[in-house]
Write a structure and sequence with these properties.
Blueprint (H helix, E strand, L loop, with lengths): L2 H4 L2 H16 L6 H8 L3 H13 L3 E4 L3 E4 L1 H24 L4 H11 L5 H10 L23
Helix pairs in contact: 2-4, 2-5, 3-4, 5-6, 5-7
The structure holds zinc ion (2 copies).
The site of one zinc ion has 5 residues, from helix 7.
């Protein structure tokens, strides 16, 4: 079973958030900080983190914070690729500002297949950054000559 298929939408939001904070922003991520951002109870966060940890996508040390595993980082990059390619589409085609593009992309990224994302990527000549200037990660199946 692909890890991608096994993740819930909520879990993908957590993975993307943790990657953005920890890898791209180099700041610590705690249960409390996640709870604040998603406006949920810390117990809810702990539950989701436990599930992600069972799936070996992160290591969760109670009272100390979380850290993504290599597999977790790979998964987060895939998800962020989808999110950011959708942002490119909304900003260009629909003239959405970066904030609105991000908001709408958040509602759809989980549901978009990588095939769809690669088609959009090809249409836009394989963009390297999204409207908010974040890196768009590559996909091996999406080649420049395509
Ligand atoms: Zn591409
Ligand atoms: Zn963006």
């Amino acid at each position: 079973m692909k890890a991608e298929a096994a993740l819930t939408e909520t879990e993908t939001k957590y993975l993307m958030l943790i990657y953005r904070k920890q890898v791209e922003g180099s700041s610590d991520v705690s249960t409390t900080s996640i709870a604040k951002i998603f406006k949920v109870r810390p117990a809810t966060v702990t539950e989701v983190l436990r599930n992600l940890s069972k799936k070996r996508l992160l290591v969760h040390r109670p009272y100390r914070g979380v850290e993504l595993t290599e597999e977790g980082k790979r998964e987060a990059r895939k998800l962020l690729r989808k999110h950011r390619i959708l942002e490119v589409l909304f900003a260009d085609l629909l003239k959405y500002d970066p904030k609105s593009a991000c908001k709408e992309a958040s509602k759809l990224d989980y549901h978009a297949s990588m095939e769809l994302i690669n088609t959009i990527c090809r249409t836009y000549g394989h963009p390297t950054s999204c409207p908010c200037k974040k890196t768009i990660f590559t996909d091996v199946r999406c080649k420049r000559e395509g």
